[in-house]
Amino acid sequence: MIPENYGTDLPGKGRSVLVTGASSGIGLEISLYLAERGFHVYAAVRQSSRRDLLEDRMRGKGLPLAVVTMDVTRPEEIAGTRELIENREGPLYGVVNNAGIIVRGFFEDLTDEEMRRVFETNFFAALSVTREVLPGMRKTGRGRIVMIGSTGGRIGTAGSSAYCTAKFALAGFTESLAQEVRPFGIHVSLIEPGIMHTELFGKNLGVGSNASRPQGPYASMFERLMALSVERSRASSLKPADVAGAVGRALLDPHPRMRYVVGRNARWVFFLKRYLPEEAFQRGFTRTFFRQLGTNRNRAGLTDV
Ligand SMILES: NC(=O)c1ccc[n+]([C@@H]2O[C@H](COP(=O)([O-])OP(=O)(O)OC[C@H]3O[C@@H](n4cnc5c(N)ncnc54)[C@H](OP(=O)(O)O)[C@@H]3O)[C@@H](O)[C@H]2O)c1
Question: What is the pTM of this model?
Fold first, then answer.
């Protein structure tokens, strides 16, 4: 249960927010951060068995945080959660579409089913959750919808086509929706973090079923790519708490921005993409990619056409 009088002098002041994918990493940190600022947080975990980490972190703090169970790919669970919250609090003030998965693999090694699975969680689920909360927000004439995007939602990278295309789609949706709902007092923001170490690069790191075939044409590149991305996530100084801070701004700024970029590397690569001619950017990006893999295009069997 959410304590009634927690944080009436805090910036969140009892406004209710639903956070998806709160069992670990960024979603967990966002949930705690918002509750500490007085929001009434409904932290949604996919399975009840995955609530321990969050409950350990909130124990004894008396935070205004309730853990609910909701698989974002199940519309009936989304509807049930919205109803539960509205019965207690009235229409939601905010929603944070954070739940996400990754399935790594070069495109030829990914099945259509794997591509669709990534889209179901990273894109269509955000649409379903948003669709569910919009009528209440329109009724109250206010609301904040926050999408957790990625640098991969503005820059496509090899071995991540499923993830990047779903995040690109989410970014496009954010822009369209923001225009549609602004007249109703609702703001939509996209948070774009750079890479950081979470379970996404640990036990939740998905790999396409054909991606690890030792005889496959991409096998050696893929093996090095996997090692490199785990290494880069571990070396990153970014933390889930940095993303939580940006979400806090998107929920509280009087005039929230459309995009909040999180991390120096993300800002730098977006700067280059914006100001370099497209061809120069893509050439530099591809060259850096192969250099980091410790290979070159010809050794990898690739030639210019
Ligand atoms: N880590 C990064 O470098 C990074 C960078 C930019 C953006 N992001 C984005 O940040 C978000 C959170 O990722 P993370 O890094 O914190 O990874 P994470 O620790 O793996 O967290 C992912 C969360 O999503 C949940 N989830 C997955 N499928 C779900 C479903 N069908 N229903 C409900 N919840 C589901 C997971 O629940 P379970 O525990 O049940 O699996 C987990 O709570 C993702 O959208 C990701 O794309 C991450």
Answer: 0.95
